[in-house]
């Protein structure tokens, strides 16, 4: 398991002597054979600026940072893979904040790259290699010509072509889960938000947030264009917008209009679910799927990261319980981080939260953040750090009826039939 590192020009090398190390939280740790898998198709290797890779002398066990002029390397994993460790590194400039990506530990082994990761979902749909850019360009041209006055298609075309966002690309390809952003405002101040940052945050937002309020007609056009197959999903709540439920009136009217025309496919919302009354109205209008973003089931950790405005974690739980009681297929977008999510107290709290809310699916999502900044923000560990692989095993054992995955799914057949009955009523 040899150390992987890069030079200042970005050329990647494997070390001839030192073994690769990893990080769990702020601790440098040895990598375990059972945690390694071959570098997945669609993954990307990136250098970590202003860092030095740390390796281990296998004969003495001594941990050694490489000389200046080199940098640590991490892997960015496609959806479907949950990282188990961070890359092993030390910063050369402690004030520097790494770009907002989910870096995973990578080593050279048996003539190839390996990463510390676990396969938690089928990666096929979200493999970037399965999104043909020429097809996306053709789809953008077709739909923007068909709906020249629809500002949402204009906005999404930049997301698909400029950012190569897979969800917005699906909107133009007419497949799987497609995007329909609706909100420029938010009721949370998430640390490391990917679409809006205060000037003094030190982070650079990788996306630009939408800056207009769409009409019900614009929203309905996008929804009806996409909801043409039984397996199609259209989703409110994208990385290029704020909290969609702040525009509940628009969403409710659009859902009602679309469902008066077709019962095809599934309507999903990606939300923080803090506005319980707004969520109730959206659910009652005919919502099928709801994915709630969370980083913890502990109030102090949740509040430190999300900085909620006018709501609490109790409101989030209330929204999930109501949606589940109305037959909505509920899941959480669980932002995970090695050395934090696998803390004993975090695991215990999350297991109980899932049980109380009758969740159907936990979507494991690698948190895109600068590790040092995040660890300084949140409360310190209270119990033992069990390891990410152990955490996944506990979830599977303690929550046998809950799906462990990585992205939004069409519900199982029995729940899908229930959905069809609910729409007809």
TrEMBL record:
<dbReference type="GO" id="GO:0051539">
    <property type="term" value="F:4 iron, 4 sulfur cluster binding"/>
</dbReference>
<dbReference type="GO" id="GO:0003824">
    <property type="term" value="F:catalytic activity"/>
</dbReference>
<dbReference type="GO" id="GO:0046872">
    <property type="term" value="F:metal ion binding"/>
</dbReference>
<dbReference type="InterPro" id="IPR058240">
    <property type="entry name" value="rSAM_sf"/>
</dbReference>
<dbReference type="InterPro" id="IPR013785">
    <property type="entry name" value="Aldolase_TIM"/>
</dbReference>
<dbReference type="InterPro" id="IPR034457">
    <property type="entry name" value="Organic_radical-activating"/>
</dbReference>
<keyword id="KW-0408">Iron</keyword>
<keyword id="KW-0004">4Fe-4S</keyword>
<protein>
    <submittedName>
        <fullName>Radical SAM protein</fullName>
    </submittedName>
</protein>
<keyword id="KW-0949">S-adenosyl-L-methionine</keyword>
<dbReference type="Pfam" id="PF04055">
    <property type="entry name" value="Radical_SAM"/>
</dbReference>
<keyword id="KW-0411">Iron-sulfur</keyword>
<dbReference type="InterPro" id="IPR007197">
    <property type="entry name" value="rSAM"/>
</dbReference>
<keyword id="KW-0479">Metal-binding</keyword>
<feature type="domain" description="Radical SAM core">
    <location>
        <begin position="172"/>
        <end position="401"/>
    </location>
</feature>
